[in-house]
Amino acid sequence: MNIDKIIEDQRSFFNNGNTLTLKFRIDALNKLKESILYYENDIYTALDKDLNKSRLESYLTEIQMVLSEIKLTTKKLKRWMKPKRVSPGILNFPSKALIKPDPYGVALIISPWNYPFQLLFSPLVGAIAGGNTVLLKPSEISVATTEVSEKIIKRAFDPEYIAVLTGGVEVTTQLLSNKTDYIFFTGSTPVGKIVATAAARHLTPFTLELGGKSPCIIDKEVNLNRAVKRIVWGKLLNGGQTCVAPDYIYIHKDIKKTFIQKFIQFTTEFYGDNPISSNNYCKIISENHFKRLVNLLDDGQIVYGGESNKESLKINPTLIENCSDDSPIMVNEIFGPIFPIKTFENIEEVPVYIRKQGKPLALYIFSKNRKNIEYILNRTTSGGVSINDTISHLIPHDLPFGGVGESGNGAYHGYESFNTFTHSKSILKKGDFDPKLKFPPYSNEHKTIKLFKKFF
């Protein structure tokens, strides 16, 4: 695999203007859809092998989200590509001003292992729509899904347009050392810093989709039954290996005991008395991640769960309390089915603690009290928020998804994906007329300045 040659070929393909037309981009999106559907059963098999993910969960959280992006994009791309007229200002009379969305060129997409299909192909839809050529670097950890992803791309596209580059850290390092025109990275914050540093060497624009400690706040005034049901679903989806999974519970002290009871109730309802044995419960992606999570169980007092099976790489849903704020479980993103519980007495405590944790990718508030909801919203910063639900803010195409600060920068989904992979080029077309005062030698300067101050 000659990475330098692939990048050179893609740059040549782009520079020849092949990707510029609406027809080319729509055709590419349709080819992508056809290839995904051709390998649909292989995708299910791969996700089951990598994560023990059920067929329905695989469809809803991986395949459907990509197909939905393709459907929306093909429907609206003509409108998105159209240059937008804006006011040129009276000083430029007569003239016309436009904002034209221009493709960047060669885009590099680096995806993670936790949603190995969706997080590779969703940004690809935006990159195609934007008129770029694309280098895809899937995770080497989700081996089976990476293999089928490569088949999908090879069936639909020549590598001079879209290429999959497989391998470990050495391949990613080589890709980042080369100059590309845009980088889209999804993964951990530490690796995100490495990507940002590499991008800075070439002044390459980039998007970072990272993570963080996404708090799940439960107010005293709440429909606890509904709240816990939605929390259990959001936390345990994909075995807790979701970048926007609720990371820890921050609950009013008076309802903690009832919360624990209901958490056990709904976990049992969803996955049985022993979730490890459930076919609907995902496994941990690798032995290294399994060991890391098992070690976190020593950071507090387990009140529910804690059992694990090394052979199946599964850990039962776990509630844990009395964790010190400086322990690894309360400092680092958990990324697994372990749920620390922290309590508060007054709502004023909540944003103070959350701000100490940095700016999370997601924030969840469960409350009937509008004032308390607004209080938290106005005093915290996060990539996104779901009120009285978890994960659901990812679903609407018209809601940009992305982080802020430590949880990332930039956003995508729907139009925002197209916007991410295009540069807004400002264009001014001037008419024939020029006022005399535009050119030197200047006269009556004092009078001219007064005129400008009065009217402009």
Automatic annotation (TrEMBL):
PROSITE patterns: ALDEHYDE_DEHYDR_CYS (PS00070), ALDEHYDE_DEHYDR_GLU (PS00687). Keywords: NAD, Oxidoreductase. Pfam families: Aldedh. SUPFAM superfamilies: ALDH-like. InterPro entries: Ald_DH/histidinol_DH (IPR016161), Ald_DH_C (IPR016163), Ald_DH_CS_CYS (IPR016160), Ald_DH_CS_GLU (IPR029510), Ald_DH_N (IPR016162), Aldehyde_DH_dom (IPR015590), Aldehyde_DH_NAD(P) (IPR012394). Residues 2-427 form the Aldehyde dehydrogenase domain. The keyword Disulfide bond does not apply. GO terms for molecular function: aldehyde dehydrogenase (NAD+) activity. GO terms for biological process: aldehyde metabolic process. GO terms for cellular component: cytoplasm. The active site is at 209, 243. Belongs to the aldehyde dehydrogenase family. This is Aldehyde dehydrogenase.
